[in-house]
Amino acid sequence: MLKCRTVWKKLAPLARASSTVCRQNVRRTGLTSRRIPACGPVAHMSTGPAGGGRENQLYILLVGAAGVGGALYTYRTVKGDSQRYQDRIDEISSRSYKRATAEPATSIKSESSVIPEPEPEAAPSQEPEAAPSPEEPSPPAPDAEVAAPETTELPPADEPVVEASPEESAEPAAVPVVEEEPLPPSELSPLTELLPAPVVESEPAAAESPAAEPTEPQPEVVAESGGPAPDSLKVPSHTPYLLIGGGTASFAAARSIRARDPGAKVLIVTDESDPPYMRPPLSKELWFSDDPGVTETLRFKQWNGKERSIYFQPPSFYINAEELNSAENGGVAILTGKKVVHMDVRGNKIKLDDDTEISYDKCLIATGGVPRNLQVIERAGEEVMKKTTLFRKIEDFKSLDKVSRNVKSITIIGGGFLGSELACALGRRSTEYDLEVVQMFPEKGNMGKVLPEYLSNWTTEKVKSEGVKVISEALVKSVVCKDDKLEIKLKDGRLVKTDHIVAAVGLEPNVDLAKSAGLEVDSDFGGFRVNAELQARSNIWVAGDAACFYDIRLGRRRVEHHDHAVVSGRLAGENMTGANKPYWHQSMFWSDLGPDVGYEAIGIVDSSLPTVGVFAKATAKDTPKAATEKSGTGIRSESETEETATSPVASLTLAPTAEQNKDEYGKGVIFYLRDKVVVGIILWNVFNRMPIARKIIKDGEEHADLNEVAKLFNIHDD
Fold first, then answer.
1. Residue 27 neighbours by CB under 8 Å, 6+ apart
2. How far apart are CA 657 and CA 35, in angstroms?
3. Lowest mean pLDDT among 211-215, 245-249, 270-274, 569-573
4. DSSP, res 277
5. In percent, how much of the chain has pLDDT > 70?
6. Sign, Cα dihedral of 304, 306, 308, 312
7. Is residue 554 classed exposed, middle or buried when 0-12, 13-18 and 19+ CB atoms within 10 A define those classes?
8. Do the Cβ atoms of 681 and 602 come closer than 8 Å?
9. Which of 38, 650, 632 lies closest to 302 in space, CA to CA?
10. What is the model's pTM?
């Protein structure tokens, strides 16, 4: 019709010119004969000297040709559109039939077999809207735009359709128009009843579009089919919030996301077989439990006598992964035993170790770390590795607990937090099970990289009093297995024989996804390099042990402690929901050498920095047990991180003199200085004062007399 209109516009001036010439010829004839003869117009129009008759004939021929051409074009266009529409209906029918024959549900087969019958009836009603000409702005275009979210759901189910011709790609817009008509179900044709089936099968893919997310009626269609749900539905193909890793940081992020967005749908993917749990009790309270079945129940008594589970939440807290997309109020789902092996940042999707792909809107990487091992042990062979434990997970706790009950000697390599905690825990069993516990490390004393030398030596004596044989300044040269015993040869020639080795020599951040994702790894501290908002990309965050973040107060850091996992996970969750907050909160960490000695620390605590310690005599209330009785929780960070410092009231008691405090480190405060500014603080057997320490570091001021600052912690009060 557009071509006809164009031709008419070109012919109209010519037609008007011809009419004018004819009228002029009539007037000219009348003037020549001084009258207007009755037959003059006819005679002169056909044979007059001006040639008006020929132009009139040309005008008639052109108008007639244009009319015939327009009619022919209209006929061919309508016939071609009808044929293309019919071909498209046949293609949809055959595709649905093939899919239906592959499914066990017989009801779908019967529906697909009826498809060819109603095609002639459906075609005329859809013909005007099915295939509008590419050159003409079709009136149904707004309807096609409204139905666009539904039409985009079809290609994922049958990907070859995506590569169809442009004419066919415009056709499916008519299908949602049929579905949107307000007809009762009884009046719908079998074709319209079957069309939702591809949408149900591609439900996970449809969730990639936020607008297509709440497709709640689809699970009902699956239930009516009566067949088992396909395996692909067990793992959602899309989730708005994807958390990689099942540790403390992921759980804190999930809880934060749900707090700010109550209807959020969160999916946690972890390679462990357990839901999120607390790691600190694995090297602390669980070892002091009187329950012989503690390895199965994983319940423990805190220092204050209260009992709780190691898991953050019971299984009922989580929803099934296959129900996540259909959950009306959202929820948190977990995929256990699944490892993410590839991450496509541009495509916003990941691949699991079983080749399953999951797309996301926003993603958190909280992969934590893996325990380091000594190269001499790795090179020693499989027989030595079988007798070596790298302590990190629940399985490691269960395995070491079993080993400690069946061997005669265990050697712990490492003098840091984990090594010292396990040494004290196993030392308590040395008498009951006739077990020899040996701890060796290259430093001069326990936790020599953190504590000042004098306090490290005092701690070493404390560990020895727990029944542990301590070997300091020990560098392992080789490990061999002889006569079912492990022989550890040190570089100074000493030889230690043992039945089992526990390697507690640090943590290596898990950055396996950095290569496939193209994310930056910090060369100095390790871990994914992120900004102060914990962002690695616009829609990717990192939290926990794997995050190398920028601390706005202390610079770039990477922290491997429980409280940091809680704080960074919570902050990442808030930022994933639009908070845009920087990391300003100084996380703390703590370590307990049994129920009587413990400390809490914050900031940069490095024994290579200058330190100033202020100590006082401890009392019965200055123990981890008393601290948990006061706070009501064994995981002290859960209460400490929620508090803020108020204006503290300093103690009026003067600090004791050096003579009174000689070799007595019952309780105190150790300040770590950098450029005369306090950058780290350890509270030795001083509890529930962390907000004050956090405020001192945040202020970043120089202090002329740190004894006066120590009074803020009331360490001299009885």
1. none
2. 144
3. 211-215
4. B
5. 65
6. negative
7. middle
8. yes
9. 632
10. 0.64
| pLDDT at res. 597 | 79
The Cα 582–Cα 253 span in angstroms is 15
pLDDT tops 90 at residue 193: no
pLDDT tens profile 331-340 = 999 999 999 9
Looking at residue 502, its amino acid is V
Report residue 78's pLDDT band, with 50, 70 and 90 as the boundaries: confident
Evaluated on CA atoms 594, 508, 501, 479, the torsion sign reads negative
Q: Which two tokens stand for residue 103?
A: 């499914």
| CA–CA–CA angle 466, 469, 472 (5° rounding) | 120
CA distance 579 to 599: 33
pLDDT at residue 18 above 70? no
Give the Cα separation of 565 and 693 in Å (integer).
19
SS3 65: helix
Kindly state the average pLDDT of the residues 209-229: 35
Residues forming a β-bridge with 243: 268, 364
The 10s digit of each residue's pLDDT in 53-66 is: 677 888 888 888 88
Average pLDDT over residues 179-207: 36
Please name the residues in contact with 293: beta carbons below 8 A apart, sequence gap of 6 or more.
none
Burial 597-635 (b: 16+ CB within 10 A, else e): bbbbbbbbbebeeebbbbbbbbeeebbbbbbbeebebbb
DSSP per-residue string spanning 178-241: HHHS---GGGS-HHHHHTHHHHHHTHHHHTTSGGG---TTHHHHHHHH-SPPPGGGGS-SEEEE
Give the 3-state secondary structure of 610-667: CEEEEEECCCCCCCHHHHHHHHCCCCCHHHHCCCCCCCCCCCCCCCCCCCCCCCCCCE
Q: What is the C-alpha separation between 713 and 434, in angstroms, rounded?
A: 42
687, pLDDT greater than 60: yes
CA–CA separation, 614 vs 40, rounded Å?
131
C-beta atoms surrounding 2 within 10 Å: 10
Tell me, rounded to whole angstroms, the distance of Cα 672 from its chain centroid. 36
Give the Cα separation of 546 and 45 in Å (integer): 97
Interhelix angle 52-102/40-47, rounded to 10 degrees, is 70
Q: In sequence order, what E strands does 675-714 have? A: 677-684
Residue 246: count other Cβ atoms within 10 Å of its Cβ: 25
Q: Which pLDDT does position 79 carry in this prediction?
A: 81
pLDDT of 363 higher than 70: yes
As a whole number of Å, the end-to-end CA separation of the chain is: 99
Give the tens place of pLDDT for each residue, 487-499.
999 999 999 999 9
**How much is the mean pLDDT over the chain?**
75
Residue keyed to tokens 């006569």: 483
- How many other CB atoms are there within 10 angstroms of residue 486's CB atom? 22
Residue 93: its pLDDT value, please?
62
Name every residue whose Cβ is closer than 8 Å to that of residue 630 and which is 6 or more positions away in sequence: 687, 688
Identify which of 210, 232, 334, 205 has the alpha carbon closest to the alpha carbon of residue 273. Answer: 334
Task: Print the SS3 string covering 493-554.
Answer: CCEEEECEEEECCCEEECCCCHHHHCCCECCCCCCEECCCCCEEECCEEECHHHEEEEECCC
CA distance 520 to 535: 11
pLDDT bracket for residue 273 (50, 70, 90): very high
Confidence of residue 185 (pLDDT cuts 50, 70, 90): very low
